[in-house]
Amino acid sequence: MNVVPGENNLDWVLVLAPFRKDADYVAAFLHEQKVGVKAARADGDLVEHLALFPGIIVITHEALNPDVVARIATHLAEQPDWSEVPIIVLLERTVPLERIRGRLQRSWPGARLLFHTRPIAPLELVNAIQSNLLVRLRQRQVRDSLERERELRLELNHRVKNILASVTSIFQMTKRGAMTVEDLARDFTGRLQALSNVHTAVFEAGGEEVSLSAVVALTVSPYNSDGVSRVKVNGPEVMVSREAGTTIALCLHELITNAIKYGALSHPDGNVEIIWAVTRTSGSVFSLNWVEAGGPTVREPTRQGYGTRYVRSALGALLGNVPDIAFAQEGFRCSVSGPLSRITSQEDNR
Fold first, then answer.
1. What pLDDT score does 35 carry?
2. In sequence order, which ranges of 62-121 are alpha helices (DSSP H)?
3. Which residue has the higher pLDDT, 228 or 129?
């Protein structure tokens, strides 16, 4: 078996047996069991082998000189918290076991010490090695779990900071456009709900991308109650990034809010269509259209409100093109298009 050394591969054995042919003997029957093995001498060769992260160390009584004990002690002291190196010590029957055990426990406090007397049956030694390789596997799994937990904590911290930054930005923008405390409370609550809807959709999707259909459905669902669909939705299945989904949901929320206050949804017969499409002729292009109909006669306002400013800025930044906003007499319209790659992953742009 070829040994591929390193911290990510701890399933090999380092043998320190300087006398007779003990090292060859151990290596031979470990090779028969498909266990990787390397033999080291008690000089600089030992340091090099220890640097390759052996899974287990097998050492004979003859190799336990002060220099080897010190070198292994240094190696153990450098181990990460998750690593407890098993060291199998092969002793002669006549040696003072308790004295050697006490000395090694003091010198190697970070080791998992196991003592066997020689002669030892090959099957007994192989069983001891294989059971301790399994221990090393469990230790490595603990290490991987700890690393993943650390990554999740860092990711959670990053996401919480991003959410708080979004909430702060939404509050500041809402405050600038509010005339009364009631307006501030109502509009801020609505925008937070839109943000919450997107995070719910992303969480349920279980990844970094979310279905645009799900984002739109969650955003418009409060306005399609009692079996009446005043906001109609039509478009293909497109997976968008969390950031793109958040931006689109907040923009739709602003458009719906304006439609309720001044546009088609302020009239009982008014309705809205949200239509998106992907054109794949010369590069994949995403387009999004908002069309109002059946509402009061539209008149272009004398000044641009917060909702219109936000939609123009946010969609322009998202897709790289400024939206076309038209206060047509028959109904307000907003359309925008841009490269599909700006809102979704590259592999989905085929």
1. 82
2. 66-77, 97-107
3. 129
* Closest by Cα among 220, 233, 228 to 194: 220
- Digit-coded pLDDT (tens) for 280-329: 877 899 999 999 999 888 888 877 777 788 899 889 999 999 999 999 88
How many angstroms separate the CA atoms of 183 and 175, rounded? 9
Q: How far is CA 59 from CA 16, 64, 123, 275, in A?
A: 5, 8, 17, 73
Q: Per DSSP, what are the bridge partners of residue 293? A: 271
pLDDT exceeds cutoff 70 at 225: no
Beta carbons of 3 and 12 less than 8 angstroms apart: yes
Neighbouring residues of 300: CB distance < 8 A, sequence distance ≥ 6: 327
Q: Cα(116)–Cα(127) distance, rounded to whole angstroms?
A: 12
Q: pTM of the predicted model, to two decimals?
A: 0.52
Task: State the Cα–Cα distance between residues 32 and 11, nearest whole angstrom.
Answer: 15
C-alpha 121/C-alpha 118 separation (Å) is 8
Residue 85 CA to residue 10 CA, distance in Å, equals: 10
What is the rounded CA–CA span in Å between residue 76 and residue 123?
28
Which of helix, strand or coil describes residue 347?
helix
Question: Which pLDDT score, from 0 to 100, does residue 1 have?
Answer: 41
* Measured distance CA(215)–CA(246) in Å, rounded: 8
The answer to whether the CB of 142 falls within 8 A of the CB of 82 is: yes
Closest to 86 measured CA to CA, from 145, 130, 33: 130
Q: For 42, how many CA atoms within 13 A lie in the half-sphere containing its CB?
A: 17
Query: For the segment 77-134, what is each residue's pLDDT rounded down to a tens digit?
Result: 998 888 899 999 999 888 898 999 999 999 999 899 999 988 888 888 888 988 988 8
Output the DSSP codes for 111-157.
EEEEEEEES--HHHHHHHHHHHHHHHHHHHHHHHHHHHHHHHHHHHH
Query: Rounded to an integer, what distance in angstroms lies between the CA atom of residue 268 and that of residue 266?
Result: 7
Tell me the torsion sign for CA atoms 334, 338, 340, 346: negative
